[in-house]
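Justification of computing resources. Each target in the renewal requires a structure prediction run like the one illustrated here; the chain below, 362 residues long, is used simply to show the kind of job we budget for.
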Amino acid sequence: MDVNCGSYLKNYTKSAVEQKKLSISDIDRALHNLFSVRMRLGLFNGNPRNLLFGNIGANQVCTKEHQDLALEATQSCIVLLKNSNKLLPLKMTNTPSLAIIGPNANVSHTLLRNYEGPPCKKISPLQALQGYVRDTMYHQGCNAVNCSTADIEKAVEVAKKADYVVLVMGLDQGQEREYQDRDDLLLPGMQQSLIESVARAAKRAVVLALLCGGPVDVSFAKGNPKIGGILWAGYPGESGGIALAEIIFGDHKPDMRMRPDPSSGYPGRTYRFYKGEKVSSLATILATQNTPTSKETCKKAKISAIVGVKNDREMDGKHPVLLFVRQEGARKGSTVKQLIGFNSVGLKAGERAEFGFELKTG
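Resulting structure tokens:
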């Protein structure tokens, strides 16, 4: 009752009251909550421009500090799903020419998802990548993100000329938004055909970057040796183009895992129940050491779990370490595992460290 979605309350509240399914006191409580918040915001105190937050504009919002924070948040959300033969990061000195192909390569508004505020700046992945390589070639590949038609022949020609290729594919609000759901998890239209054709024609393995909110099935790319790197970027916000380019060229190390889904619904859904083959899993625990306890001591106890982590890459970076619990001998239909703790660890190249989780039972 406190928040209306669409026209639901307008259409059904009167009928619910008449049928005594909803009381006037419930409506009064909802209105009290609603108007209390509006009063705290000062919405009844006169001209909003004369109030505390009435003159906040770009000069206050778009400070360097705020834009740096936006970039940091975006950097921390991009996930590296595949990196065969250490294709990434590309080196500027070894990348004389770069082809950027795909319907999401030269977009900026798609980066913002929906329900967004005005961005301070909009830089597309294409623009950001052009800042790293002087000789760049661009082709959209598809008529739009839905890719109902694709100029695969022209995209292949562009790919053949370049030393490296970055494909920026995925979804946009035309495929996923309120009142707009997808029928399947495949990339729309001819996107997969475009990706496979460009990868086959390219001189070297290509990089595939995905802009999308919901999941997409990229199992075809995971097993394709000509697709060397896969980056999942979500809808990364106004700094998304910059963050993608920085990760592709090594100015930032990707340190995020795929997001967990905490839903506890029908077994077979989410990481908590799913036992089948995965294209990209939520997490892999590298090493654990714990202290055994009896059933009696677990009723109210503190348990420590020590985790060893090593950064075996050539770059400094952060890594989120996730701790799961699994119940041995659980009955059919119980969860396979449950995420119960996480921590982000920053390590220099080659550095190893141990840190602990402290768990309380009972």
